[in-house]
Amino acid sequence: MPKMQPEVVDEFLALPFVGVIATLRADGRPYTVPVWWLWKDGVIWITGTHTRIWCRQLKRDPRVSLCIEALEPIPGHIEFDGMAHLKALPEFDIWPISRELAEKYVGRGDPARMPEVDTFFANMKTEPRLLFRIVPELVRAIDMRVYRGKRGDREFQERMRAQPAADQRQPR
Questions:
Q1: φ, ψ for residue 152 (rounded to 5)?
Q2: What is the pTM (predicted TM-score) of this model?
Q3: Residues 2-23: pLDDT tens digits?
Q4: Helix (H, G, I), strand (E, B) or coil at 8
Q5: What is the C-alpha to C-alpha distance for residues 63 and 66, in angstroms, rounded to an integer?
Q6: CB of 67 within 8 A of CB of 77?
Q7: Which of 101, 133, 19, 107 has the alpha carbon at shortest distance from 67?
Q8: Higher pLDDT residue, 168 or 128?
Q9: Residue 138: in which H helix or E strand, if any?
Q10: Helices assigned H by DSSP within 4-145
Q11: Can you name the CATH fold of 6-167?
């Protein structure tokens, strides 16, 4: 697999792509939901509220996966598997990280959007907010600009090219 180079990973994770997290329901089935996320100091931060289903699931079972995919400007995806650690008021000041999330997704690096960021952040502060700090245990980062298919698929294609057309059969 064409793994993303570290400098591409850093660039990718700085962009405001929506991610999808997978949590576990009480019966073990996966539950997925799109989220905003922040990569900072080697961990992922996600904000939610105490009443959201996925937040309640992470409080019960902290195992989580996050998949971030993009087509432009860097086509590829990064997936993280890890454990979510609850961070909540009053023990932890959630507001600086929450503000950074609002700036990333609402502000999008445009100083002219700061009034929108301020409005969004003010609303966040009226909600029963919390943060999850996700410590990655497994990371997969694929750069689709250099992707050539999985090794098994490439090997199959090479075998097919080497055989006469009449002898080519699809595997079952």
A1: -60, -40
A2: 0.83
A3: 788 899 999 999 999 999 999 9
A4: helix
A5: 10
A6: yes
A7: 19
A8: 128
A9: strand 129-143
A10: 6-14, 53-60, 95-102, 114-124
A11: Pnp Oxidase; Chain A (2.30.110)
What is the rounded distance in angstroms from the CA atom of residue 73 to the CA atom of residue 140?
19
Instruction: Measure the CA–CA gap between 143 and 11, rounded to whole angstroms.
Output: 12
- Spans of all domains in the chain: 6-167
- pLDDT grade for 146, boundaries at 50, 70 and 90: confident
Contact 78, 128 (CB under 8 A): no
Question: Is 42 strand, coil or helix?
Answer: coil
Q: Check whether 112 has a pLDDT greater than 70.
A: yes
Cα→Cα distances 96→14, 117, 128, Å: 17, 13, 16
| Residue range 30-51, pLDDT digits in tens | 999 999 999 999 999 999 999 9
State how beta strands 19-24 and 30-35 pair: antiparallel
Measured in whole angstroms, how far is the alpha carbon of residue 63 from the centre of its chain?
14
